Amino acid sequence: MDMGIAGKWALVCGASKGLGLGCAQALLREGVNVLIVARDAEALQQSAARLMADSARPAAASVQFVAADITTTEGRAAVFAVRKDFDMVVTNAGGPPTGDFRDWDREAWIKAVDANMLTPIELIKATVDGMAARGFGRIVNITSSAVKAPIDILGLSNGARSGLTGFVAGVARSRLAAQGVTINNLLPGAFDTDRLKGTMKGAADKTGQSLEAVMDARRKNIPAQRFGTPEEFGAICAFLCSVHAGYMTGQNVLADGGAFPGTF
After folding, report:
1. 186-231 confidence digits (pLDDT tens)
2. Residues contacting 142, CB < 8 A, separation 6+
3. d(CA 159, CA 171)
C-alpha cells in the first residue's frame, strides 16, 4: 500500500532506539524525510547512520538528527532552529521511573507531567497551525497501554499520560480536524525494548523473583504469546501518518498482542 506521504517531513522524538526508532524507520521507508531527536548524541548519530544505510530507504528520503532533551524549552528550541515546519510529529519521551506512590514527592510528579503530558502539548502547539495552513498534518503521541489498564508500579506514567489523553480528546476534535490535521495516541503494550526490561526489573525487585521469571510470566499472559517488535509498532505509526488515516482522529490505538481484556 502506498501511504501517500513520500517527500513529507516528520519529527520523531526519542528516536535513538526502541519504539521511536521503529517509527522513524517505518516513515523513512515510506519516503518521508525524518528529523530524529534524542538526548544521547552518540546513540543518536549511530541510529541516524543505520537509518541512512537501510536498503529499504528510498534514495530521496533523508535523515537529520538533533541531540537534545525534547522535554526542555532549550531542547525544543534546538529542534525548531533546524527546521520549523513538519507534516508529522511523533511525540515520545522516556517514561517516569517505577515505584510506590508514597515515595513520590511534588518534584517527581512535576517532572513526569512535564515530560509525558506538557512536552507533547508544546510540540502540538508549535506545529499544528502550520499543518492546518498546508491542509495536512499528523500528530502521533506514543503513550502507553497503561492509559487503559493502569499498572500499579507505573503511577507517575498512569497519571501523566492520562492527562495527555484527555487533552488530545478535546483538541483533536477542534477545527483542526476539518483542516486535514489528525491527532491520535498510539498505546504500546509489552514491546521488546529497554523500557520493558526496566519495568520488569522493578516488578522483579518488588516481588523477589528473577527478571527472567517475571518476563516469562508477562509473555505468557499475552494472547499473542510474545512481545511486540519496534518494527511492527513503527508500521502502525506509519499508517496513522498516512493519507489513508485521514478519517481517524482523537483515537487511542492499542497495540498489545490482545493483552487488554476489555470489550471497549
Report:
1. 999 999 988 788 878 877 888 889 988 889 999 999 999 999 999 9
2. 14, 19, 20, 23, 90, 91, 92, 185, 186, 188, 237
3. 19
Cell triple for 111: 517532572
**Cβ neighbours around 232 below 10 Å, total:** 13
Residue 68 near residue 80 (C-beta atoms within 8 A): no
Neighbours of 170 (CB within 10 A): 10
Give the pLDDT confidence score for residue 166 in this predicted structure. 97
Residue type at 62? S
| pLDDT, average across residues 175-183 | 98
Model confidence, pTM: 0.94
Compute how many other C-beta atoms are within 10 angstroms of the C-beta atom of residue 54.
Answer: 13
Q: Check if the beta carbon of residue 229 is closer than 8 Å to that of residue 190.
A: no
Q: How far is CA 24 from CA 76, 227, 248, in A?
A: 18, 20, 21
